[in-house]
C-alpha cells in the first residue's frame, strides 16, 4: 500500500509528472543506454525504441500505476502488472535490473523537473516505484518457479510458407521435452544479427506437444526478417519458455475470437486446444485481413472451426477478389448481421486500431469491458 503521506504528495504532483512523463522516459532511455549499451543491443527491441513506442508504453504504465494506487490505496492493478511481468519473464529480466532502472529513471526525473523535485516529492515517487517494482519482482519470481534460465537451444524441424509474408515454423528442443503451455501464450526467439546484436522477439504459439512447438512469423522487423531468410530445417534457434497471461479460460461460456492479420496466431492455438478437448462451447471466430492471399492459416482455421459443433466463422477482406463469401472492407459486425453471443468472453489480437474498433463493437453488443481481453504484439499502448 502507498502510505497516506506519499499518496497526498503523488496526487498533488501527478499532473506535473504526467505532463512531463514523455520527456522523462525519453531522457531515461538515453541515460540507460549510454551507461549500458548492451541493453539496447541484446535486450530492448531496437525497432520499438526507434519508433518511440516503448517509451510511450513505459510512460503509460508508470502513470497508470501511480494513478491507480492513489485512487485505490487498498488494491493493485493486477491486470497491468501481470501483462508486464509475463513480458519481463519472457526476456529473463532479473531483480537487480530494477535498481539499474531506478537509478536512471530518477536521475531523468530530476533532470526534467529540476527544483520541483523536493525531498518529499522524491520520497513519494520512490515509494511508488518500489511498490510497482517489488510487485513485478514477486510476480516474475513465481513465473520463473525456481528456474531463471529462460532460454535454451532448439532446432527448426519444419517451415511452411503460409503466405508471401508469413512463415510457420515447427521447432524441437535439443534436450528434454518441450515445455507445456497454455493456449494464447508466446515464446521469445533470440537471434544474432549481422552487427553482433542478439535481439529478441515474441511469437504466439499456434500449437505443439511434448516433442515440438509451432509459431508463425510475419516478415516485419529485423528479427522476423532474419528468421525468414536464415531459419530452415536443421537451423539452431534460441527460444525462451512460454509466457503470456492472456490465455484461454477453462469456463463453458461462449467465446469470441477476433483477430486481424498475423493476430490470428494465438487464435489458432486456442482453436487447436478446443478441438483436441472436444469442447462443446459456442465459438464465434472473426478475422479481418487485406485479402485471401494475405490470410495466414486460412485453411487450417476453417478446418478447425468445422470440427467444432457450435463454431461459426466470419471473414472480412479489404480486397475480396477470390473469395465471394468474405465480407468486404473492415470488420463490421452490425453491417454483416453477426450476432455476438450473450455472456461471451472475447479475445482480441491484431493491430491496435483493429482491436480498438473490435472492442468498441463488442461493447456496443453488450459485452462488459472486463470480458474483453487482448494480446498486444508490441509495447502495450492500451485500447482506451
UniProtKB/TrEMBL annotation:
InterPro entries: FAD-bd_FR_type, FNR_nucleotide-bd, Globin, Globin-like_sf, Globin/Proto, OxRdtase_FAD/NAD-bd, Riboflavin_synthase-like_b-brl
Enzyme Commission no: 1.14.12.17
Domain Globin: 1-141
Enzyme class: oxidoreductase
Domain FAD-binding FR-type: 149-249
Superkingdom to which the source organism belongs: Bacteria
Catalytic activity, as annotated: 2 nitric oxide + NADPH + 2 O2 = 2 nitrate + NADP(+) + H(+); 2 nitric oxide + NADH + 2 O2 = 2 nitrate + NAD(+) + H(+)
Entry keyword annotation includes Oxidoreductase: no
Keyword terms of this UniProt record: Heme, Iron, Metal-binding, NAD, Oxygen transport, Transport
Family, similarity comment: Belongs to the globin family.
Protein name, entry field: nitric oxide dioxygenase
Organism: Streptacidiphilus monticola
Amino acid at each position: 500500500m502507498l502510505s497516506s503521506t506519499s499518496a497526498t504528495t503523488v496526487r498533488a504532483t501527478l499532473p506535473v509528472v504526467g505532463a512531463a512523463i514523455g520527456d522523462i522516459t525519453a531522457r531515461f532511455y538515453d541515460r540507460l543506454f549510454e551507461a549500458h549499451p548492451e541493453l539496447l543491443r541484446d535486450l530492448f527491441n531496437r525497432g520499438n525504441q526507434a519508433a518511440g513506442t516503448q517509451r510511450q508504453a513505459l510512460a503509460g504504465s508508470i502513470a497508470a500505476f501511480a494513478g491507480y494506487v492513489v485512487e485505490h490505496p487498498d488494491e493493485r492493478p493486477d491486470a497491468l502488472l501481470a501483462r508486464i511481468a509475463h513480458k519481463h519473464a519472457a526476456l529473463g529480466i532479473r531483480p537487480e535490473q530494477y535498481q539499474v532502472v531506478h537509478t536512471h529513471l530518477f536521475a531523468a526525473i530530476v533532470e526534467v523537473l529540476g527544483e520541483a523535485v523536493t525531498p518529499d516529492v522524491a520520497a513519494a515517487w520512490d515509494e511508488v516505484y518500489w511498490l510497482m517494482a517489488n510487485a513485478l519482482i514477486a510476480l516474475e519470481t513465481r513465473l520463473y518457479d525456481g528456474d531463471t534460465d529462460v532460454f535454451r537451444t532448439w532446432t527448426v524441424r519444419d517451415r511452411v510458407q503460409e503466405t508471401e509474408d508469413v512463415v510457420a515454423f515447427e521447432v524441437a528442443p535439443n534436450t528434454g521435452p518441450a515445455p507445456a503451455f497454455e493456449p494464447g501464450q508466446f515464446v521469445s526467439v533470440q537471434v544474432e544479427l549481422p552487427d553482433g546484436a542478439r535481439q529478441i522477439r515474441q511469437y504466439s504459439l499456434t500449437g505443439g506437444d511434448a516433442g515440438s512447438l509451432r509459431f508463425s512469423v510475419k516478415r516485419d522487423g529485423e528479427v522476423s526478417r532474419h528468421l525468414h531468410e536464415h531459419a530452415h530445417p536443421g537451423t539452431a534457434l534460441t527460444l525462451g519458455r512460454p509466457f503470456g497471461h492472456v490465455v484461454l479460460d477453462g469456463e463453458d461460456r461462449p467465446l469470441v475470437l477476433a483477430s486481424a492479420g498475423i493476430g490470428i496466431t494465438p487464435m489458432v492455438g486456442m482453436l487447436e486446444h478446443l478441438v483436441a478437448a472436444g469442447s462443446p462451447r459456442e465459438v464465434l471466430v472473426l478475422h479481418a485481413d487485406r485479402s485471401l492471399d494475405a490470410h495466414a492459416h486460412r485453411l487450417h482455421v476453417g478446418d478447425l472451426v468445422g470440427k467444432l459443433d457450435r463454431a461459426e466463422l466470419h471473414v472480412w477482406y479489404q480486397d475480396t477478389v477470390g473469395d465471394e463469401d468474405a465480407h468486404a472492407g473492415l470488420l463490421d459486425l452490425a453491417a454483416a448481421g453477426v450476432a455476438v453471443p450473450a455472456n461471451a468472453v472475447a479475445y482480441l489480437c491484431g493491430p491496435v486500431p483493429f482491436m480498438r474498433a473490435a472492442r468498441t463493437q463488442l461493447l456496443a453488443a453488450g459485452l462488459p469491458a472486463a470480458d474483453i481481453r487482448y494480446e498486444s504484439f508490441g509495447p502495450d499502448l492500451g485500447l482506451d
